[in-house]
Write a structure and sequence with these properties.
Blueprint (H helix, E strand, L loop, with lengths): L2 E4 H11 L4 E4 L6 H7 L6 E4 L3 H13 L4 E6 H17 L5 E7 L13 H7 L3 E2 L4 H18 L3 E6 H4 L2 E4 L16 H4 L3 H24 L4 E3 L7 E4 L1 H11 L5 E3 L2 E3 L4 H8 L4 E4 L5 H8 L18 H8 L26 H10 L3 E3 L24 H12 L1 H4 L3 E6 H18 L4 E6 L28 H7 L4 E5 L4 H13 L4 E6 L35 E4 L2 E4 L21
Parallel strand pairs: 2-3, 2-4, 4-5, 5-7, 6-7, 10-11, 10-13, 14-15, 15-16, 16-18, 17-18
Antiparallel strand pairs: 1-8, 6-12, 9-11, 19-20
Helix pairs in contact: 1-2, 1-6, 3-4, 10-13, 15-17
Length: 575
Protein backbone atom coordinates (compact mmCIF):
# COMPACT_ATOMS: atom_id res chain seq x y z
CA UNK A 1 0.00 0.00 0.00
CA UNK A 2 1.47 3.31 -1.06
CA UNK A 3 1.18 6.34 1.21
CA UNK A 4 2.51 9.84 1.77
CA UNK A 5 5.20 10.24 4.41
CA UNK A 6 7.39 13.02 5.66
CA UNK A 7 11.05 12.35 4.98
CA UNK A 8 11.73 12.00 8.71
CA UNK A 9 8.76 9.68 9.11
CA UNK A 10 10.09 7.57 6.24
CA UNK A 11 13.50 7.29 7.90
CA UNK A 12 11.77 5.97 11.03
CA UNK A 13 9.89 3.46 8.91
CA UNK A 14 13.17 2.40 7.31
CA UNK A 15 14.68 1.86 10.76
CA UNK A 16 11.71 -0.28 11.70
CA UNK A 17 11.80 -2.36 8.54
CA UNK A 18 15.60 -2.60 8.69
CA UNK A 19 15.53 -4.32 12.07
CA UNK A 20 16.68 -1.46 14.28
CA UNK A 21 16.12 -2.19 17.97
CA UNK A 22 17.63 0.80 19.78
CA UNK A 23 17.26 4.55 19.14
CA UNK A 24 18.89 7.31 21.19
CA UNK A 25 18.81 10.95 20.08
CA UNK A 26 18.73 14.55 21.16
CA UNK A 27 15.99 16.67 19.54
CA UNK A 28 17.09 19.21 16.96
CA UNK A 29 15.20 20.67 14.03
CA UNK A 30 15.02 19.38 11.30
CA UNK A 31 15.82 15.89 12.67
CA UNK A 32 13.44 15.65 15.63
CA UNK A 33 10.55 13.76 14.04
CA UNK A 34 12.73 10.77 13.12
CA UNK A 35 13.00 9.74 16.75
CA UNK A 36 9.45 10.76 17.63
CA UNK A 37 8.11 8.58 14.80
CA UNK A 38 10.45 5.72 15.68
CA UNK A 39 9.10 5.76 19.23
CA UNK A 40 5.66 4.84 17.88
CA UNK A 41 6.93 1.37 16.94
CA UNK A 42 6.68 -0.86 20.00
CA UNK A 43 9.46 -3.10 18.68
CA UNK A 44 11.97 -0.22 18.93
CA UNK A 45 13.36 1.08 22.19
CA UNK A 46 13.60 4.86 21.81
CA UNK A 47 14.89 7.54 24.17
CA UNK A 48 15.93 11.16 24.42
CA UNK A 49 19.53 11.40 25.61
CA UNK A 50 20.92 14.43 27.47
CA UNK A 51 23.01 15.38 24.42
CA UNK A 52 24.19 14.08 21.05
CA UNK A 53 27.52 12.74 22.34
CA UNK A 54 25.71 10.60 24.89
CA UNK A 55 23.20 9.51 22.25
CA UNK A 56 25.89 8.28 19.86
CA UNK A 57 27.82 6.55 22.61
CA UNK A 58 24.64 4.80 23.77
CA UNK A 59 23.85 3.75 20.18
CA UNK A 60 27.39 2.40 19.85
CA UNK A 61 26.90 0.43 23.05
CA UNK A 62 23.71 -1.09 21.66
CA UNK A 63 25.55 -1.99 18.46
CA UNK A 64 28.32 -3.55 20.52
CA UNK A 65 25.76 -5.72 22.32
CA UNK A 66 24.60 -7.07 18.97
CA UNK A 67 21.47 -5.00 18.19
CA UNK A 68 21.07 -2.65 15.24
CA UNK A 69 20.98 0.90 16.57
CA UNK A 70 20.42 4.50 15.49
CA UNK A 71 20.84 8.03 16.74
CA UNK A 72 19.67 11.31 15.19
CA UNK A 73 20.75 14.92 15.49
CA UNK A 74 20.82 18.17 13.57
CA UNK A 75 24.00 19.40 11.94
CA UNK A 76 25.27 21.35 14.96
CA UNK A 77 24.59 18.29 17.09
CA UNK A 78 27.16 16.44 15.02
CA UNK A 79 29.73 18.84 16.44
CA UNK A 80 28.87 17.53 19.89
CA UNK A 81 28.97 13.90 18.71
CA UNK A 82 32.19 14.29 16.74
CA UNK A 83 34.37 12.98 19.58
CA UNK A 84 32.95 9.43 19.58
CA UNK A 85 32.33 9.53 15.81
CA UNK A 86 35.98 9.81 14.86
CA UNK A 87 37.02 6.94 17.11
CA UNK A 88 34.04 4.72 16.22
CA UNK A 89 35.38 5.03 12.68
CA UNK A 90 38.46 3.14 13.94
CA UNK A 91 36.68 0.55 16.09
CA UNK A 92 33.98 -0.26 13.60
CA UNK A 93 30.76 -1.85 14.84
CA UNK A 94 29.23 -5.16 15.84
CA UNK A 95 25.60 -4.88 14.75
CA UNK A 96 24.71 -2.11 12.31
CA UNK A 97 24.99 1.49 13.53
CA UNK A 98 23.33 4.33 11.59
CA UNK A 99 23.68 8.01 12.47
CA UNK A 100 21.09 10.44 11.14
CA UNK A 101 22.17 14.06 10.67
CA UNK A 102 19.92 16.77 9.25
CA UNK A 103 21.44 19.91 7.74
CA UNK A 104 19.61 23.22 7.71
CA UNK A 105 20.61 25.16 4.60
CA UNK A 106 18.98 28.56 4.84
CA UNK A 107 19.23 28.49 8.66
CA UNK A 108 15.49 28.17 9.20
CA UNK A 109 16.11 27.25 12.84
CA UNK A 110 19.87 27.15 13.34
CA UNK A 111 22.76 29.35 14.39
CA UNK A 112 24.98 28.37 11.48
CA UNK A 113 24.86 26.77 8.05
CA UNK A 114 27.57 24.13 8.25
CA UNK A 115 27.85 21.34 5.69
CA UNK A 116 27.93 17.93 7.41
CA UNK A 117 29.48 16.22 4.40
CA UNK A 118 32.89 17.45 5.56
CA UNK A 119 32.58 15.30 8.68
CA UNK A 120 32.44 12.05 6.75
CA UNK A 121 35.49 12.92 4.70
CA UNK A 122 37.37 13.81 7.88
CA UNK A 123 36.16 10.87 9.98
CA UNK A 124 36.30 8.43 7.03
CA UNK A 125 32.86 6.93 7.42
CA UNK A 126 30.35 6.56 4.57
CA UNK A 127 27.35 8.82 4.04
CA UNK A 128 24.09 8.20 2.18
CA UNK A 129 21.95 11.15 1.06
CA UNK A 130 18.31 10.55 0.08
CA UNK A 131 16.43 13.00 -2.11
CA UNK A 132 12.84 12.10 -1.14
CA UNK A 133 10.85 10.04 1.33
CA UNK A 134 11.02 6.81 -0.68
CA UNK A 135 14.79 7.00 -0.70
CA UNK A 136 14.83 7.99 2.98
CA UNK A 137 13.12 4.70 3.81
CA UNK A 138 15.23 2.63 1.41
CA UNK A 139 18.54 4.27 2.36
CA UNK A 140 17.92 3.73 6.08
CA UNK A 141 17.60 0.00 5.41
CA UNK A 142 20.58 0.00 3.07
CA UNK A 143 22.66 1.81 5.67
CA UNK A 144 22.38 -1.18 8.02
CA UNK A 145 23.52 -3.54 5.29
CA UNK A 146 26.53 -1.37 4.51
CA UNK A 147 27.30 -0.88 8.20
CA UNK A 148 27.59 -4.62 8.80
CA UNK A 149 29.17 -5.46 5.43
CA UNK A 150 31.97 -2.91 5.82
CA UNK A 151 32.19 -2.84 9.64
CA UNK A 152 31.46 0.87 9.98
CA UNK A 153 28.97 3.37 11.24
CA UNK A 154 27.01 4.94 8.37
CA UNK A 155 25.72 8.50 8.30
CA UNK A 156 22.33 9.18 6.73
CA UNK A 157 22.22 12.85 5.74
CA UNK A 158 18.87 14.59 5.60
CA UNK A 159 18.14 18.28 5.04
CA UNK A 160 15.23 20.55 5.88
CA UNK A 161 13.46 20.14 2.54
CA UNK A 162 13.71 16.34 2.47
CA UNK A 163 12.99 15.96 6.20
CA UNK A 164 9.88 18.14 6.15
CA UNK A 165 8.38 17.40 2.74
CA UNK A 166 6.07 14.55 1.85
CA UNK A 167 6.36 12.09 -1.01
CA UNK A 168 5.04 8.64 -1.84
CA UNK A 169 6.51 5.57 -0.16
CA UNK A 170 5.56 1.91 -0.17
CA UNK A 171 6.08 0.45 3.31
CA UNK A 172 7.31 -3.10 3.69
CA UNK A 173 7.61 -5.64 6.46
CA UNK A 174 10.02 -5.58 9.36
CA UNK A 175 12.95 -7.97 9.09
CA UNK A 176 14.73 -8.47 12.38
CA UNK A 177 18.16 -10.03 11.94
CA UNK A 178 19.55 -12.48 14.45
CA UNK A 179 21.32 -10.79 17.30
CA UNK A 180 25.06 -10.66 16.77
CA UNK A 181 27.06 -12.19 19.57
CA UNK A 182 29.39 -9.84 21.39
CA UNK A 183 32.92 -11.17 21.63
CA UNK A 184 35.78 -9.53 23.47
CA UNK A 185 38.24 -8.04 21.02
CA UNK A 186 40.65 -5.62 22.73
CA UNK A 187 42.54 -4.88 19.53
CA UNK A 188 39.32 -3.72 17.84
CA UNK A 189 37.51 -1.90 20.61
CA UNK A 190 40.17 -0.56 23.00
CA UNK A 191 41.56 2.49 21.23
CA UNK A 192 44.77 3.05 23.07
CA UNK A 193 47.59 4.18 20.75
CA UNK A 194 49.08 0.75 20.06
CA UNK A 195 45.72 -0.64 18.93
CA UNK A 196 44.62 2.52 17.12
CA UNK A 197 47.77 2.46 14.98
CA UNK A 198 46.79 -1.01 13.77
CA UNK A 199 43.19 0.02 13.12
CA UNK A 200 44.00 3.06 11.00
CA UNK A 201 45.18 1.05 7.95
CA UNK A 202 41.92 -0.90 8.11
CA UNK A 203 39.99 2.38 7.96
CA UNK A 204 41.88 3.40 4.82
CA UNK A 205 41.33 -0.03 3.25
CA UNK A 206 37.62 0.24 4.06
CA UNK A 207 37.37 3.59 2.29
CA UNK A 208 38.92 2.06 -0.82
CA UNK A 209 36.50 -0.87 -0.65
CA UNK A 210 33.53 1.46 -0.28
CA UNK A 211 34.75 3.49 -3.25
CA UNK A 212 34.72 0.32 -5.34
CA UNK A 213 31.20 -0.45 -4.09
CA UNK A 214 30.09 3.07 -5.03
CA UNK A 215 31.16 2.53 -8.66
CA UNK A 216 28.35 0.05 -9.36
CA UNK A 217 25.85 0.88 -6.62
CA UNK A 218 22.30 1.44 -7.85
CA UNK A 219 21.98 4.53 -5.65
CA UNK A 220 24.59 6.27 -7.82
CA UNK A 221 22.69 6.27 -11.09
CA UNK A 222 22.94 7.94 -14.47
CA UNK A 223 19.71 9.25 -15.96
CA UNK A 224 20.00 9.84 -19.68
CA UNK A 225 19.07 13.09 -21.41
CA UNK A 226 18.86 14.13 -25.04
CA UNK A 227 21.02 17.25 -24.85
CA UNK A 228 24.64 16.33 -24.09
CA UNK A 229 25.86 19.91 -24.21
CA UNK A 230 25.61 19.78 -20.42
CA UNK A 231 25.83 16.99 -17.86
CA UNK A 232 24.76 17.53 -14.26
CA UNK A 233 26.03 15.83 -11.11
CA UNK A 234 23.79 16.37 -8.11
CA UNK A 235 22.27 14.81 -4.98
CA UNK A 236 19.67 15.29 -2.24
CA UNK A 237 17.04 17.99 -2.70
CA UNK A 238 19.08 19.61 -5.49
CA UNK A 239 18.31 16.54 -7.60
CA UNK A 240 14.62 17.44 -7.31
CA UNK A 241 15.33 21.01 -8.38
CA UNK A 242 17.29 19.82 -11.41
CA UNK A 243 14.58 17.40 -12.50
CA UNK A 244 11.81 19.95 -12.02
CA UNK A 245 13.80 22.54 -13.95
CA UNK A 246 14.93 20.42 -16.89
CA UNK A 247 13.21 17.03 -16.74
CA UNK A 248 15.11 14.69 -19.07
CA UNK A 249 16.76 17.46 -21.09
CA UNK A 250 20.26 16.91 -19.74
CA UNK A 251 21.96 13.71 -18.55
CA UNK A 252 22.16 13.56 -14.76
CA UNK A 253 24.45 11.61 -12.45
CA UNK A 254 22.46 11.33 -9.25
CA UNK A 255 24.64 10.45 -6.25
CA UNK A 256 22.99 8.58 -3.39
CA UNK A 257 26.28 7.83 -1.64
CA UNK A 258 27.93 11.16 -1.07
CA UNK A 259 31.07 9.69 0.55
CA UNK A 260 33.09 8.00 -0.59
CA UNK A 261 32.09 8.99 -4.13
CA UNK A 262 32.81 6.89 -7.20
CA UNK A 263 35.75 7.93 -9.34
CA UNK A 264 35.60 6.02 -12.62
CA UNK A 265 31.82 6.44 -12.85
CA UNK A 266 32.22 10.21 -12.63
CA UNK A 267 35.04 10.21 -15.18
CA UNK A 268 32.98 8.09 -17.58
CA UNK A 269 29.96 10.36 -17.17
CA UNK A 270 32.06 13.47 -17.76
CA UNK A 271 33.43 11.97 -20.97
CA UNK A 272 29.93 11.77 -22.46
CA UNK A 273 29.03 15.45 -22.06
CA UNK A 274 30.45 18.70 -23.40
CA UNK A 275 30.18 20.59 -20.12
CA UNK A 276 30.12 19.23 -16.56
CA UNK A 277 28.14 21.07 -13.89
CA UNK A 278 27.66 20.21 -10.21
CA UNK A 279 24.44 21.42 -8.56
CA UNK A 280 24.73 21.24 -4.76
CA UNK A 281 23.82 23.37 -1.76
CA UNK A 282 26.32 25.01 0.57
CA UNK A 283 29.95 24.02 -0.05
CA UNK A 284 31.39 22.67 -3.28
CA UNK A 285 31.90 19.20 -1.85
CA UNK A 286 31.11 17.17 -4.98
CA UNK A 287 32.78 19.81 -7.12
CA UNK A 288 36.03 19.51 -5.17
CA UNK A 289 35.97 15.75 -5.62
CA UNK A 290 35.50 16.17 -9.37
CA UNK A 291 38.40 18.60 -9.54
CA UNK A 292 40.58 16.11 -7.63
CA UNK A 293 39.89 13.70 -10.50
CA UNK A 294 41.31 16.24 -12.93
CA UNK A 295 37.95 17.19 -14.44
CA UNK A 296 36.94 20.62 -15.68
CA UNK A 297 33.73 21.40 -13.84
CA UNK A 298 31.44 24.31 -13.02
CA UNK A 299 29.71 24.61 -9.69
CA UNK A 300 30.22 27.37 -7.20
CA UNK A 301 31.14 29.76 -10.00
CA UNK A 302 27.44 29.49 -10.89
CA UNK A 303 25.62 28.66 -7.67
CA UNK A 304 25.94 30.33 -4.25
CA UNK A 305 27.52 28.61 -1.28
CA UNK A 306 25.05 30.37 1.01
CA UNK A 307 21.44 29.38 1.56
CA UNK A 308 19.15 27.06 -0.35
CA UNK A 309 18.88 26.64 -4.11
CA UNK A 310 15.59 26.56 -6.04
CA UNK A 311 14.15 25.41 -9.34
CA UNK A 312 14.23 28.93 -10.73
CA UNK A 313 17.82 29.49 -9.64
CA UNK A 314 18.88 26.27 -11.36
CA UNK A 315 17.05 27.36 -14.51
CA UNK A 316 18.55 30.83 -14.37
CA UNK A 317 22.13 29.62 -14.05
CA UNK A 318 21.82 26.89 -16.68
CA UNK A 319 19.88 28.79 -19.31
CA UNK A 320 16.37 27.56 -18.68
CA UNK A 321 13.12 29.48 -18.81
CA UNK A 322 12.55 31.13 -15.44
CA UNK A 323 8.97 31.23 -14.23
CA UNK A 324 7.77 34.40 -12.58
CA UNK A 325 4.70 34.70 -10.42
CA UNK A 326 2.30 37.57 -10.10
CA UNK A 327 3.39 40.32 -7.74
CA UNK A 328 1.16 41.10 -4.78
CA UNK A 329 -0.50 44.48 -4.81
CA UNK A 330 0.50 45.07 -1.21
CA UNK A 331 3.67 44.09 0.62
CA UNK A 332 3.25 41.39 3.24
CA UNK A 333 4.30 42.78 6.61
CA UNK A 334 7.26 41.11 8.29
CA UNK A 335 6.43 38.64 11.03
CA UNK A 336 9.56 38.22 13.12
CA UNK A 337 9.46 35.37 15.66
CA UNK A 338 8.50 36.37 19.18
CA UNK A 339 8.03 34.61 22.48
CA UNK A 340 4.48 33.33 22.89
CA UNK A 341 1.86 35.17 24.90
CA UNK A 342 2.32 34.12 28.52
CA UNK A 343 5.88 32.87 27.96
CA UNK A 344 7.51 32.68 31.40
CA UNK A 345 10.84 33.88 29.98
CA UNK A 346 9.53 37.28 28.86
CA UNK A 347 9.44 38.94 32.30
CA UNK A 348 12.96 37.74 33.18
CA UNK A 349 14.35 39.42 30.08
CA UNK A 350 12.38 42.57 30.81
CA UNK A 351 13.96 42.73 34.27
CA UNK A 352 17.46 42.03 32.92
CA UNK A 353 17.13 44.83 30.41
CA UNK A 354 15.61 47.18 32.97
CA UNK A 355 18.60 46.86 35.29
CA UNK A 356 20.97 47.04 32.29
CA UNK A 357 22.90 43.80 32.66
CA UNK A 358 25.19 42.07 30.20
CA UNK A 359 23.43 38.81 29.36
CA UNK A 360 25.18 35.81 27.81
CA UNK A 361 22.51 33.79 26.04
CA UNK A 362 22.15 30.20 24.91
CA UNK A 363 20.25 27.99 22.45
CA UNK A 364 16.50 27.66 22.92
CA UNK A 365 13.25 29.54 22.37
CA UNK A 366 14.49 31.99 25.01
CA UNK A 367 17.07 33.14 22.46
CA UNK A 368 14.19 35.36 21.32
CA UNK A 369 15.05 37.51 24.33
CA UNK A 370 17.51 39.10 21.91
CA UNK A 371 14.63 40.42 19.76
CA UNK A 372 13.29 43.93 20.29
CA UNK A 373 11.65 45.40 22.26
CA UNK A 374 13.32 43.19 24.88
CA UNK A 375 16.78 43.18 23.28
CA UNK A 376 18.28 41.74 26.45
CA UNK A 377 20.80 39.18 25.14
CA UNK A 378 24.39 40.00 24.21
CA UNK A 379 25.69 36.68 22.86
CA UNK A 380 24.46 33.33 21.54
CA UNK A 381 27.06 30.78 20.44
CA UNK A 382 26.13 27.14 21.05
CA UNK A 383 24.55 24.82 23.59
CA UNK A 384 25.98 25.56 27.04
CA UNK A 385 28.23 28.41 25.91
CA UNK A 386 26.41 30.96 28.06
CA UNK A 387 27.58 29.36 31.31
CA UNK A 388 31.15 28.67 30.19
CA UNK A 389 31.41 32.08 28.57
CA UNK A 390 30.13 33.80 31.70
CA UNK A 391 32.99 32.31 33.71
CA UNK A 392 35.59 33.64 31.30
CA UNK A 393 33.88 37.00 30.93
CA UNK A 394 33.78 37.54 34.68
CA UNK A 395 37.23 36.13 35.43
CA UNK A 396 38.95 38.19 32.74
CA UNK A 397 37.19 41.43 33.63
CA UNK A 398 36.23 41.01 37.25
CA UNK A 399 36.36 44.66 38.22
CA UNK A 400 33.87 45.84 35.59
CA UNK A 401 31.91 42.63 34.88
CA UNK A 402 31.30 40.93 38.23
CA UNK A 403 27.89 41.88 39.55
CA UNK A 404 26.82 43.23 36.15
CA UNK A 405 26.70 40.02 34.08
CA UNK A 406 24.54 36.90 34.03
CA UNK A 407 24.07 33.82 31.87
CA UNK A 408 20.65 32.53 30.87
CA UNK A 409 20.09 28.92 29.86
CA UNK A 410 17.07 26.62 29.56
CA UNK A 411 16.53 23.50 31.61
CA UNK A 412 17.10 21.10 28.69
CA UNK A 413 20.14 23.02 27.46
CA UNK A 414 21.55 23.12 30.97
CA UNK A 415 21.41 19.33 31.17
CA UNK A 416 22.76 19.05 27.62
CA UNK A 417 25.98 20.98 28.22
CA UNK A 418 25.46 23.75 30.74
CA UNK A 419 26.18 21.72 33.86
CA UNK A 420 29.85 21.25 32.92
CA UNK A 421 30.24 25.02 32.62
CA UNK A 422 28.67 25.40 36.05
CA UNK A 423 31.17 22.90 37.43
CA UNK A 424 33.92 25.11 36.02
CA UNK A 425 32.39 28.15 37.72
CA UNK A 426 32.27 26.34 41.06
CA UNK A 427 35.70 24.74 40.72
CA UNK A 428 37.52 27.89 39.61
CA UNK A 429 35.41 30.17 41.79
CA UNK A 430 34.23 32.97 39.53
CA UNK A 431 31.77 35.45 40.95
CA UNK A 432 29.14 34.46 38.38
CA UNK A 433 25.35 34.25 38.44
CA UNK A 434 23.58 31.74 36.19
CA UNK A 435 19.82 31.95 35.56
CA UNK A 436 18.26 28.62 34.57
CA UNK A 437 15.01 29.24 32.70
CA UNK A 438 13.09 26.12 33.72
CA UNK A 439 9.92 25.86 31.64
CA UNK A 440 9.57 22.11 32.29
CA UNK A 441 10.04 21.03 28.67
CA UNK A 442 12.34 21.23 25.65
CA UNK A 443 10.40 24.05 24.04
CA UNK A 444 12.20 25.12 20.88
CA UNK A 445 11.99 21.78 19.08
CA UNK A 446 8.35 21.08 19.86
CA UNK A 447 7.87 20.01 23.49
CA UNK A 448 10.11 17.00 23.96
CA UNK A 449 10.73 15.61 27.43
CA UNK A 450 14.16 15.94 29.06
CA UNK A 451 15.81 14.61 32.23
CA UNK A 452 14.31 17.42 34.36
CA UNK A 453 10.65 16.80 33.43
CA UNK A 454 10.08 13.42 35.08
CA UNK A 455 8.86 11.74 31.89
CA UNK A 456 10.63 9.81 29.14
CA UNK A 457 10.17 9.95 25.37
CA UNK A 458 7.05 7.78 25.47
CA UNK A 459 5.53 9.90 28.23
CA UNK A 460 6.04 7.34 30.98
CA UNK A 461 7.08 8.54 34.46
CA UNK A 462 10.83 8.29 35.09
CA UNK A 463 13.61 9.68 37.26
CA UNK A 464 13.43 13.47 37.48
CA UNK A 465 16.68 15.36 37.88
CA UNK A 466 16.36 17.91 40.67
CA UNK A 467 18.05 21.08 39.44
CA UNK A 468 18.48 22.57 42.89
CA UNK A 469 20.18 19.43 44.22
CA UNK A 470 22.32 19.15 41.10
CA UNK A 471 23.56 22.73 41.44
CA UNK A 472 24.36 22.19 45.11
CA UNK A 473 26.13 18.92 44.25
CA UNK A 474 28.56 20.55 41.84
CA UNK A 475 29.54 23.12 44.45
CA UNK A 476 27.10 26.03 44.16
CA UNK A 477 26.00 27.06 47.66
CA UNK A 478 23.59 29.85 46.67
CA UNK A 479 20.60 28.46 44.71
CA UNK A 480 17.34 30.45 44.55
CA UNK A 481 14.00 29.68 42.87
CA UNK A 482 11.73 32.43 41.55
CA UNK A 483 8.38 32.67 39.78
CA UNK A 484 9.03 34.67 36.60
CA UNK A 485 5.49 36.06 36.63
CA UNK A 486 6.41 37.97 39.83
CA UNK A 487 8.69 40.63 38.36
CA UNK A 488 9.34 42.50 41.59
CA UNK A 489 10.52 39.34 43.32
CA UNK A 490 12.67 38.44 40.30
CA UNK A 491 14.37 41.82 40.32
CA UNK A 492 15.02 41.58 44.05
CA UNK A 493 16.53 38.09 43.86
CA UNK A 494 18.67 38.93 40.83
CA UNK A 495 20.00 42.00 42.64
CA UNK A 496 20.80 40.03 45.77
CA UNK A 497 22.63 37.26 43.90
CA UNK A 498 24.65 39.72 41.83
CA UNK A 499 25.70 41.45 45.04
CA UNK A 500 26.91 38.19 46.58
CA UNK A 501 30.65 37.58 46.39
CA UNK A 502 30.39 33.95 45.32
CA UNK A 503 28.86 31.87 42.50
CA UNK A 504 25.09 31.55 42.46
CA UNK A 505 22.22 30.05 40.49
CA UNK A 506 18.72 31.43 40.07
CA UNK A 507 16.09 29.00 38.79
CA UNK A 508 13.22 30.79 37.07
CA UNK A 509 10.52 28.12 37.23
CA UNK A 510 7.17 28.11 35.49
CA UNK A 511 5.93 25.68 32.80
CA UNK A 512 5.75 26.69 29.15
CA UNK A 513 2.46 28.46 28.49
CA UNK A 514 1.72 26.10 25.59
CA UNK A 515 1.86 22.86 27.57
CA UNK A 516 -1.51 21.13 27.45
CA UNK A 517 -1.69 20.50 31.18
CA UNK A 518 -1.07 24.16 32.11
CA UNK A 519 -4.30 25.88 33.22
CA UNK A 520 -4.52 29.62 32.63
CA UNK A 521 -6.82 32.11 34.38
CA UNK A 522 -8.03 33.42 31.03
CA UNK A 523 -7.50 36.70 29.19
CA UNK A 524 -7.31 39.98 31.00
CA UNK A 525 -9.20 43.07 29.82
CA UNK A 526 -8.04 46.51 28.84
CA UNK A 527 -9.92 49.63 29.90
CA UNK A 528 -9.62 52.33 27.23
CA UNK A 529 -10.97 54.93 29.68
CA UNK A 530 -8.08 54.39 32.08
CA UNK A 531 -5.39 53.80 29.45
CA UNK A 532 -3.16 56.85 28.95
CA UNK A 533 -1.40 55.47 25.88
CA UNK A 534 1.99 55.48 27.62
CA UNK A 535 2.92 52.16 25.94
CA UNK A 536 4.63 50.81 29.06
CA UNK A 537 2.86 47.50 28.45
CA UNK A 538 4.34 47.32 24.95
CA UNK A 539 7.88 47.09 26.34
CA UNK A 540 7.52 43.38 27.05
CA UNK A 541 6.80 42.57 23.40
CA UNK A 542 3.76 40.38 24.11
CA UNK A 543 1.93 39.47 20.87
CA UNK A 544 -1.41 39.71 22.67
CA UNK A 545 -1.00 43.48 23.21
CA UNK A 546 -1.35 46.11 20.50
CA UNK A 547 -2.09 49.82 20.29
CA UNK A 548 -5.37 50.74 18.62
CA UNK A 549 -6.31 54.42 18.35
CA UNK A 550 -3.64 55.25 20.91
CA UNK A 551 -4.97 52.79 23.50
CA UNK A 552 -3.71 49.38 24.61
CA UNK A 553 -5.85 46.54 23.30
CA UNK A 554 -5.70 42.92 24.47
CA UNK A 555 -6.31 40.12 21.96
CA UNK A 556 -8.43 37.70 23.97
CA UNK A 557 -7.62 34.85 21.57
CA UNK A 558 -3.92 35.09 22.49
CA UNK A 559 -3.84 36.35 26.09
CA UNK A 560 -3.51 33.67 28.78
CA UNK A 561 -3.80 36.05 31.70
CA UNK A 562 -0.23 35.81 33.02
CA UNK A 563 -0.56 39.27 34.53
CA UNK A 564 2.90 40.52 33.60
CA UNK A 565 1.54 43.49 31.69
CA UNK A 566 -0.65 44.43 34.68
CA UNK A 567 2.51 44.92 36.74
CA UNK A 568 3.73 47.52 34.22
CA UNK A 569 0.57 49.60 34.03
CA UNK A 570 0.51 52.47 36.54
CA UNK A 571 -3.07 53.44 35.70
CA UNK A 572 -4.89 50.14 36.38
CA UNK A 573 -5.98 49.99 32.75
CA UNK A 574 -5.19 46.28 32.52
CA UNK A 575 -6.79 43.65 34.68
Amino acid sequence: MKMLMLGNEAVARGLYEGGCSFVSSYPGTPSTEITECAAKYEELYAEWAPNEKVALEAAFGASLSGRRSFCAMKHVGLNVAADPLFTISYTGVNAGLVIGVADDAGMHSSQNEQDSRHYVQASKVPMLEPSDSAEALAFAKLAYELSEQFDTAVLLKMCTRVSHSQSVVEPGERVLPARKKYEKDPGKYIMMPANAKKRHPEVEARTKALTVWAETADINRIEEGGDRSCGIITSSTCYQYVKEAFGDTYPVLKLGMIWPMPEQKIRDFAATVERLVVVEELDGFIETHCRSLGLAVSGKDLFPDIGELSQNLVKEKLGGSVQTGAALEEAIPARPPVMCAGCPHRSIFYVLKKINLTVLGDIGCYTLGAVQPLGAIDTTICMGASVSGLHGFVKAGEEENAGRTVAVIGDSTFIHSGVTGLINIAYNESNATVIILDNSITGMTGHQQNPTTGYNLKGDPCTKIDLESLCHAVGIKRVRVVDPYDMEACQTVIGEELAAKEPSVIISRRPCALLKYVKHPGPICSDPEKCKGCKACMKIGCPAISMVDGKAKIDATLCVGCGVCEQLCKFDALG
